[in-house]
Amino acid sequence: MEINDSELEGIIQGLVNSIRSDSRPEELERIKKLIKKNVPFTLRSYFSAYLLREMTAKKEERRNGRKDDKPFMKKEKTQHSIPLKESAAEHKEEAKAEKDQQRKSEKKLRVVPEGSKTVYINLGKMGHVYARDLVSLITANCEISKEDIYLIRLHDKYSFVTMSEENCQKAIEKLEGLQYKNRTIQINLSNKEKPSAAVQANEQDSSIS
Fold this sequence. Notes:
Number of helices: 6
Largest sheet: 4 strands, antiparallel
Distance between the termini: 50 Å
Shape: rod-shaped
Strand order of the largest sheet: 3-4-2-7
């Protein structure tokens, strides 16, 4: 038997009141940390909904089976209370912190193959050109795939792009003199930028996305 919304709201309100007046807040805090560790942020609302559904189902089983069962909720008398994070801003902040932590845990080294070369191109952040723009420019005009672009380092007025020697030559042939975002492209091989064999993939200047 499905419990109607009105009855569910009553159960939820009872749970909220019990949480506010719980006599063992430190235990709730411990369980909360375990949930945060093991349940993805996007699934936590469903996690709560699932628990509530299972609990109400068991309540119905008890009601239909044994009349002498204890009530579903029993409010505990206590003088303790726990702080609740109820504002949307705090939830948003928590979600952002979790995503940042996830990005940090996913750091990997971007390996630049031996023998790769780097080209200088006179496009940079001051001209509103970013890594994704350079990737689109190169893949659209040079028959070079995104995976063949090993590294992009953005500066204010220019950038460095690291690829195989063959693809660097191809980019020079195809892009030199083209008009892009009100600029005439100048591109040539660079001897100044020689990236190390491994570069942190999460660096801002080397982000290819």
